[in-house]
Amino acid sequence: MSWLYDRLETEEETIIRYKRAPILYFGNLVIFVGMFALAIDGKYFLAFILCGCGFALSMSWRKPNIEVKSAMREGNVQIKGSKWSFSNPLTITIQKNQPNKSSEPT
Q1: Could you tell me where the DSSP H helices lie in the chain?
Q2: CA-to-CA distance for 34 and 37, rounded, in angstroms?
Q3: Domains of the chain: which residue ranges?
Q4: Could you tell me the pTM of the whole model?
């Protein structure tokens, strides 16, 4: 379990709540600005280290994002909230037992 998101799984659905998403987005913004400033100043090694930190921070969301993308292809996803808000966090609900709409007779 990651410290950036919470996951609740039941028989009918999986709920992924990104409670600390603003930390990730603001952190990546600070890292990008820092990399740019260091590169302009000629400190390429430090800019490269910051690039690695940004990559490591972003990789903490890889596992749930793969699951969400596959559920989006099936059309079983509901998204609520805001990625910049702590009080209304980004919440993704994946329905497990929803019948596939493309298999219905026409």
Answers
A1: 21-41, 44-59, 62-74
A2: 5
A3: 6-96
A4: 0.70
Which stretch of DSSP H or E encloses residue 90?
strand 90-95
Let me know: does 90 contact 18? Beta carbons within 8 Å: yes
Cα–chain center distance at 61: 5
Q: How far is CA 103 from the centre of its chain?
A: 30
Query: Tokens at residue 65, please?
Result: 């994002």
Which amino acid would we find at residue 71? A
Share of the chain above pLDDT 90, in %: 18
Which two structure tokens, joined as six digits, stand for 105? 């007779």
How many Cβ atoms are within 10 Å of 69's Cβ, its own excluded? Answer: 10
**Six token digits for residue 24:** 């990730």
* DSSP 3-state of 101: helix
| Strand 13-18 versus strand 6-9 pairing type | antiparallel
- Beta partners for 29? none
pLDDT at 99: 57
